[in-house]
Design brief:
Number of strands: 23
CATH topology of the largest domain: BirA Bifunctional Protein, domain 2
Shape: globular
Number of helices: 14
Distance between the termini: 20 Å
Largest sheet: 9 strands, mixed
CATH class of the largest domain: Alpha Beta
Bound molecules: 5'-O-(N-(L-cysteinyl)-sulfamoyl)adenosine
CATH architecture of the largest domain: 2-Layer Sandwich
Length: 438
């Protein structure tokens, strides 16, 4: 993308309405704009981030054989009456009437709809397990939307739903999903620690939240540093083996980890002092096992091996995709701006033309840009070098390729790594190889 022609409105000043760093930086870097309270438009660079996050989430869901669908945002109130949640859900639910005075709602979550969809389709135990997911907008009429996309009213969620033949199989599915989550967050360049959680309005008796450490997080967190040391991408777990899944689950859940709501001071004292990590966290994912709560209340059964009907065991698994854009910034920034992890950055590099209009500088920049126009944000504006450097730091591209008249003459550029500030002078080809690698 060429910056001179892009819809990328950066701001020099901190917007007064933004209380936390990610909200400030998302507005300043031109990623989002508010259109109504708790509702945001995603601008081109922000949308790229949202898509990059979604794609990693999708790949890790597919890897554990969850199947992607796309359910609508609008749902019929009758579906929710079947589970009894229409009245129970309260004022967070946005209720809508169509021209025929039929009651609809903008989905805050999809347990009812997916259970109905499952019931229309799956008739026998032989077709289990089934795991369906989608990445879709939700609406919750939060009392106090705040912190930008971190607590919005409309937000993008990945929600998955599982149907199993019995408890043992449902728990294996839950554990498989836990592994998928740890891999997902690691690929997104952040550490999210799973913690035992309350189930709230979703219901059920087994639940974990995944929290990213950030000073502005809404929950207090306490955990054993042993949880920071694992590499989940290389974790050799055979996800078809319930025994291996159990061993993995025990490894993850044995070290102490709890939010303030579930904190147990005595157990905390037992963690060696050097390993105690205490701070605040942002919830980026939440998984639930709730057995037959929805299949039973909605009358969705399938036939078993003995020919008798039974209610499949369910779980649901959410990731806050739009919240993650903010949460990643909370975890990855400095005083100059965002420091995107490579995997989510909207552009791999900015090309900073220090002398736009100079024949040689323009030619070198165009040559680099033409190699991968989608990967670069080419700063071709006739701005001062200082403005270009500041904007590139603010926007947080992993690399900056600096093209100035002196080095351009020798066919060389300066390459800066945003995360470390490290600079090196390289040939154009060497710089391209580094920036476009991986
Ligand atoms: N049905 C279940 C799992 S699919 C469910 O709705 N779980 S949840 O309520 O915990 O939401 C899942 C994730 O969505 C949360 O972990 C959080 O990351 C994100 N989320 C929830 N509310 C908001 C909100 N108001 N703004 C942004 N993200 C949110």
């Amino acid at each position: 993308m060429r910056l001179s022609r892009s819809f990328l409105p950066t701001l020099k000043e901190n917007p007064a309405e933004a209380q936390i760093v990610s909200h400030r930086l998302m507005l300043r870097a031109g990623l989002i704009r508010q259109t109504a309270s708790g509702i945001y438009a995603w601008l081109p660079a922000g949308l790229k981030v949202l898509r990059n996050i979604s794609q990693i989430v999708r790949e890790e869901q597919d890897r554990v054989e969850a199947q992607e669908v796309l359910m609508p945002t609008l749902q019929s109130a009758d579906l929710w009456r079947r589970s009894g949640r229409y009245d129970a859900y309260g004022p967070e639910m946005l209720r809508i009437q169509d021209r025929h005075k039929r009651e609809l709602l903008y989905g805050p979550t999809n347990e009812e709809m997916v259970t109905d969809l499952f019931g229309q389709t799956i008739k026998s135990y032989k077709e289990l397990p089934q795991v369906l997911y989608h990445i879709q907008w939700k609406f919750r009429d939060e009392m106090r939307p705040r912190f930008g996309v971190m607590r919005g009213r409309e937000f993008l969620m990945k929600d998955a739903y599982s149907f199993d033949v019995d408890y043992a199989s449902a728990v294996a599915t839950y554990r498989r999903m836990m592994l998928a989550y740890l891999r997902t967050f690691q690929r997104l360049g952040v550490r999210a620690v799973p913690m035992r959680a309350d189930t709230g309005p979703i219901g059920g008796d087994l639940s974990h939240e995944f929290l990213i450490l950030a000073p502005t997080g809404e929950s207090g967190v306490f955990y054993d540093a042993a949880l920071d040391e694992q590499d989940w991408l290389d974790e050799p777990v055979d996800t078809n083996s319930p025994e291996e899944l159990e061993a993995f689950f025990n490894r993850v859940t044995t070290p102490y980890a709890a939010t303030d709501e579930m904190h147990d001071a005595a157990a905390w004292e037992a963690v060696p002092e050097a390993r105690r990590r205490e701070g605040r966290g942002v919830e980026v994912g939440h998984i639930f096992y709730f057995g037959t709560k929805y299949t039973e209340s909605m009358g969705v059964s399938v036939s078993g091996a003995d020919g008798a009907q039974f209610f499949p065991e369910m779980g649901s698994y959410g990731i806050g995709v739009s919240r993650l854009a903010g949460a990643i910034i909370e975890a990855c920034h400095d005083e100059n701006g965002i420091i995107w992890p490579d995997s989510v950055a909207p552009f791999r590099a900015a090309i900073l033309n220090l002398k736009s209009g100079d024949e040689l500088c323009d030619a070198v920049c165009e040559q680099i840009y033409s190699k991968a126009p989608e990967a670069f944000l080419y700063d071709d504006r006739s701005e001062r070098a200082g403005v270009k450097f500041a904007d590139a730091d603010l926007m947080g591209h992993p690399w900056q390729i600096v093209v100035g008249p002196r080095s351009a003459k020798e066919g060389r550029v300066e390459l800066k790594r945003r995360a470390t500030g490290e600079r090196q002078e390289l040939s154009v080809d060497e710089a391209l190889a580094l920036v476009l690698a991986g």
